[in-house]
Amino acid sequence: MRKVLAVGIGLAWATAGQAQSGAATAPPQPLQPQESAASSVPLPRVTVTGRRPIDVGPMPGLMVTRDQIPANVQTATGQQIRASRALNLGDYMNQELQGVSVNDYQGNPFQLDVNYRGFTASPQVGTPQGLSVFFDGIRVNEPFGDVVNWDLIPTNAIERFDLFPGSNPLFGLNTLGGAISVRSKTGFSAPGLQGQLTAGAWGRRQLQLSGGANDGTLGGFFALTRFQEDGWRDDSPSRVNQLFGRGDWRGEAASAYASVLYADNRLVGNGLIPIDLYRQRAESVFTSPDEARNRVLQFSVGGQFDLSERANITAMAYHRDSRRRGLNGDIYAGFDDFGDRDISPDGVARNGATRGGGFTGPGVVEGTPIGLLTRTDLEQRSNGLSLQFNWNEERNAMMLGASLDRSRTRYDMFQRLGLIDAAHRVFAAPDQIDPDYYAAEFDVPGNNFDGTSTTRSLFFQDTFTPVPQVTLTAAARYNHTKVDNTLLTRSSAGQVPLHELREFRAPEYTDGQVFRRTRTQESFTYRSFNPSLGINWRPVQDLNLFGNLSRGARAPSVVELGCAFDPTPVERVPGTPSLGTAPRSLTGPGCSLPTALSADPYLPQIRATSGELGLRQRLTTDWDWNVSVFRTDLRNDIYFVGVGDGRSYFDTIGKTRRQGLELGLNGRMGPLDLRVNYSFTDATFQSRFYTLSPHNSTADFNQNSAYVGDTQVIGQDVLPTPNASLNRGYGTYRMIRIDPGARMPGIPAHALNLHVGWRVAPGWKLGLGMVARSMAYMRGNENNLHQGAGTDQEIGRYYCSQAGGCDFSGFSQLPVRTGRSFRNAGKVPGYAVFNFDASVEVSRGFTAFVQVTNLFDRKYFTAGRLGVNPFTPGTNGSNGPSGWNYNSSEWQNTSLVAPGAPRGVFVGFSWDLGTPAADR
C-alpha cells in the first residue's frame, strides 16, 4: 500500500505541476479599464437556471432532462458528497436523500444495509435484495446473493450519482424498488488536484487524494483513498484501500475511455449485541471475530461514436474479479441440544438442562465446546459488454441497446468447534476440548458451491415530446437468464450437527458423515419482458406533474437457488425404507447463512409492479419542493423461512407490498441554506406464511407440532397436534405465523432528514443536520406480535414404542428443559441524531474543518433481532471464564441490537487546486 500511496502522490504532484505550468505559459491578457480594482463595483448574485441532462440508463448517450423523467429521481454530485464528509455512498444517502434508511446489523460503517422505499442493498448474504447498483454502467451487485459491497465504491471518484425509483426496466434484473447509477470523474470533468486529511475519534485516519488533467484531447484522472480506524467497539478495526484510474480520449466525432478499479479492504464488524450486555458496557461485543476481507480488481473500456449531430453509438466492456474471505466466531447454538451422550467421564451432563430424565444441574465446564468458527472463501468473476444506439432529436429521444453479462462463482465453507475467552473471542482449542468431539480437532466442510449465471438483454426507451408541455415515455427490457449450479453437499444419515460427529464411532462411519459428499448439478432458465409507461405534464413554467407504471423482475440468485427448500421425498436413513421418508432438505445439513447450502429446487423469479404519482416545482430561483406517492407489489417474493425441525431455507412466500410518500423542500434565505426530506414507507407482507423464530413469544413451543416424519424417536409412533399438518404439512414447531398486513422488520415507517447551513462570512460555514427515524420491528418479529412476557416452556414429544401401537394413555413423553422468560419487546425505538460541521477557508483552495457526529451523544439502535444470551449468571448453572452458563435453561431470551456510534469528533484539512471557484 505504501507503493500505491507513493504513486498516487506522485501523480497528484505531476498533475498540480502541469496545471501550474499551463498557467505560467499562457499568454498574458491585457487588463481592460473596466476590470481595474478602482472601477469595480459589487454586483448582486445572479442565478442562471437550466435543464441539466441526465443519463437515463446504465449506459450514457441518451440525454433527457429531469423534467422529462416521470419519477422522483434524486441526484448528488461529487462535490456534495465531499462536502457532507460521508464515509461511503450508503452513509451519504442515509443523511441526505428521501426514502432512505440504514441498518447496521454488521456493526461496521462500511457494511450498512441501505433501505430505499422498503427495498434493500446489503453486503450481507441472505438479505433479500431489491436495488441494483451500477458504476460506470457495470453492475456491482455481486453474483452470489446480489449483495452490494459499499466499501468497493470510492466516493472521491464519483462525478455524480442518480437514484432512480421503482421497477425501471432499463436497469435490468434486481431492479425491484430502485437503481443507483454512479458516474466517475474524468480528466475533463474534474481537472486539478483535490485532497482531504481527516483524523479523530476511535483512531480514525483517512487520506483522500484525486487529480485530473487534460490537453483538450487526452485526459487522465486518479483517485486514492486510505482509511484506518480502530472502531468504537472492542476488537473492531477496519482498513479500506481504494485506487481508481481513468484515461479518456476525445476526438471530433468519437471518444473512448479505459478505467481500472482496485480495492483491498479488511472490515471487522462484530455485529449485534444483547441489550443486557450493551447496558453493562456499550463497547463490548457478543462474540468475535467477525472479519471480512474484500478485494476487487475491475477493468472497463468504452466509448462513443457520433453518427451525426443527433445520433451516436455507445459501447462498453468490462471484467470484474472480486474475492471475499470471512472468519466468523459465534456462539455454538447447538449446545442447547446437548444430550445424554454429552457427559463427562464421571457421568455429569455438559449441559445441565438437557440430561435424560429432565435433570437440571450445573453442567461441566472442562472440555466442552461452546464456540463455532466458520471460514468462508468466495470468488466471483464477471464479464460483460453493452451496445447502445441513441437518437437525440428535438422532440424525440430514443435508445435501443443490448447487453451480455456472465459470472462465475465459487464458494467454500469450513466449520470447527471451539472455546470462548473472557473477551468473548472464539478460538480453536483442540488440546482443551474433549477429544471425542471430532469437529473440535478437524475442519468440517460444509455445502460448497460452484456456479455460473448468464444474462442476455435487449432494451429500448422512447421519450417523446409532442407539445412543449407534455412528455411521454415508453421503455421495455427483455431478459434471458440461465443459472448453472454444481453443489457439493455433505451426506449424512439423518441430521447430524457438529457435536454429534464423535471420535468413538467407527472411522468409516465418521468419514461417511464428513467426507462422503453428494454432487448435484442443475440448470435453470428465466425469461422476462418488463415494460414501463410514463408521462410528464408542465401546465405552467417550473411546475411538473408526473406519473409512471412499470414492471420489473429478479431471477433468484445463485445462493437462493442453492439454499432453497427441496420437498422431494427421500429415505430418512438410506437403505432402510421401513423408517419412512422425509423431504430431501430435512435429511441433510441445514442452511445457516452465510455458511451452508443444500440441494436446490426451482424457485420462480420475483415479479414487481410499480406505480408513482408526483409533483415538483421550482418556486423561485432559490426554492424548490417535491411530493410523490408510490406503490410496488411483488409476486413470488423470496424469504429465508423455516420449514421443519429448526431448518431454514429460502422459499417463495407469495406477495409483499411497499407503498408510501416522499416530500422534499430545498432553498436558501440570505446566508441560510435549508434542506428538509421526509418519507413514509409502509412495507408489509401480503401472504400468510410461517418462519422459524424460536425466540418470539408467540412461537409454537409444542414439540408435537413438529413434522410427523421428523420424529425424534425414529421408527416409533408419535402423537401429533393438529398444527403438525399446517405449514404445507411440515408443522409449526418453533415457528411463527405471519399474516397479511404485518410490517417487515428493519424498515422504519417515518424518516426525516433536516440540514441547516449558515454562511457566516465568506469562506466560513456552519452546518447542523438531523437524522430521525421512527420505530422498526426486529428480525424474528415478522408477525409484529412478540411481547416481553411469558416463557418458551416447551411441551415434550409424545411417543409410543409398544408393538401394535398405543392408545392415548400408552404414550410416553420426552423430558424438556425449564422454560426461559421473555423480557424485551421486539421493536427498535425511534431516534433522532444530530451532526455538526464547521469549515473555514484559510486561503484560496485550502480549508480546515471540524465534524461532530452524534452531537448530543444519543444512545440509539438502527436495527435488531430476537435471540438468546448464554452469558448469564444462574442459580444452577456453572460459568466458565467467558461467562458462558453451562445450563441452557438459565440462558436469557433477549433482543440483540445494532447500536449506533457515540459522539465522535473529527478534524481535517482539505485542498482544491485547479478547480474553478464556481465548482467548489
Automatic annotation (TrEMBL):
Pfam families the record matches: Plug, TonB_dep_Rec_b-barrel
InterPro entries: Beta-barrel_TonB, Beta-barrel_TonB_sf, Plug_dom, Plug_dom_sf, TonB-dep_rcpt-like
Domain of life: Bacteria
Subcellular compartments: Cell outer membrane
Entry membrane topology: Multi-pass membrane protein
Leader peptide range in chain numbering: 1-19
Protein family according to the UniProt entry: Belongs to the TonB-dependent receptor family.
TonB-dependent receptor-like beta-barrel domain segment(s): 246-855
Keywords: Cell outer membrane, Membrane, Receptor, Signal, TonB box, Transmembrane, Transmembrane beta strand, Transport
Region annotated Disordered, chain positions: 18-44
Predominant subcellular localization, coarse grouping: membrane
Residue intervals of the TonB-dependent receptor plug domain: 67-179
Name of the protein in its database record: TonB-dependent receptor
Organism: Aquincola tertiaricarbonis
